[in-house]
């Protein structure tokens, strides 16, 4: 995706006839009440989809696209931003006890959840840059950032939050290879305002330069940083009961993988992680013999979740007419045909940017591959999704979490495209943002009630309720696993052939 002026022109000019046709038809529907009422998308959404789809679906150099999306255009408007870096955690090999190092914990979880050979997995702990984000009240949308130190910026932010506020561990979207906390400031700041809390937005390592599980490792480090800040950190320790993991698109997938990692470590009886000289308790207990373990976080709040990297389910084609993302090709390599540059193709070549083909259906990459039992002990979960390519995987994940005993709030919007919650051009986007923030605020105070139905809302505000067990009703668990396996086998064969050339 090339967002330079030249790149935008190349993507849009050939599509001008189609865009004009869409605008005309959308305009004519405004004068035909019956037709307009029946059409799932409102006027502006239809036009945005027509314009955004060619931009999003035109392959561009990954190196060039990363450089564009990593450009920081500054901080302004009603937000506090405080930048800091989490120092690299030390290596620690366990001696058979329940205390392990960060790297070993992730490695053990990968092995426990998957049957793939772990040879070739090359990852290490690194420094992790993060941004604290909060709402800044009483300023204009173009107000400049005050000339203060990062510590003072943090203190100013905390003056506008309460001690009992939610702390949102935010993981940005971008297909694991694009975007940055800087691109998501105008999502995190409104979310912080909506819930009355603060966000810690993580600059995790991007693919294809860093493959799985580097991003997951960085997210795990950020979680430990909240629980046990090293000396010199701005914040005080945050109780796990005040932390909400959140993210959009691939960041939502990474967030669900982080939750699955934490649940798996408990299953493996790993109770403490060595982190900057301390053995950090990840059980959520105080050590009392009579105390029941709490979930590792207060909740998981994800929007338009990308939780099937293999893109196996029918909605990746069925919903193409409503989404800003183009469906994957049915033949040949499943990834976009990115032009060759310094970082792609990799050496040796891969089919997927994020991982080797043999790992594409690993539960810590595609969390819909996790079995129901893997989600035992999960906290309440909020999922918001539209009529997008990722609808089926969002529904499968919601159903499986519900079947595992979790409280699931499913907030669906008919006719809406990928990540509409972040753009908020219509009332559906604004409503979803409010619901997202409400969940984050309520879940840390224990006020999220058990639900048994999912809600699908149309553009008129009419709500259709569907039993959570009935979501993705045509996709039983065995069917989902079979589809995943077929897509994995296809990628493995393609990757073997690529490496023979």
TrEMBL record:
Keyword annotations: Hydrolase
Domain Alpha/beta hydrolase fold-3 as annotated: residue spans: 168-421
Family that this chain belongs to: Belongs to the 'GDXG' lipolytic enzyme family.
Protein name per its UniProtKB record: Alpha/beta hydrolase fold-3 domain-containing protein
InterPro entries registered for this protein in UniProt: AB_hydrolase_3, AB_hydrolase_fold, GDXG_lipolytic_enzyme, Lipase_GDXG_HIS_AS
Entry superkingdom: Eukaryota
GO MF annotation list: hydrolase activity
Organism of derivation: Polyplosphaeria fusca
